[in-house]
User: Fold this.
Amino acid sequence: QVQLVESGGGLVQPGGSLRLSCAASGFTFSIYTMGWYRQAPGKQREWVATIGSGGIKDYADSVKGRFTISRDVAKNTVYLQMNSLKPEDTAVYYCQTANYWGVGIQVTVSS
Assistant:
């Protein structure tokens, strides 16, 4: 069955960086669009970034220029490199494809 397993979250100071990984299995990773979403406390889940099967990338305005999404087809893994992190980036981050979601991973940006 489809599995999406996120890793790489944690606590980081404002201005710092983290790289999230999402290991995918149970489907043909190379042909699916992959996405990252996040949900902050008390807020609705929001889209962060998407990478298509051909490598086309798109970002929410709130993260454009700071976050980079990428994928490694050989490893069936999608990444989210997050730089210049801000306290408002604090959220649970989810990996997504089609109707499938990972369980999420906490990212906390705080001094």
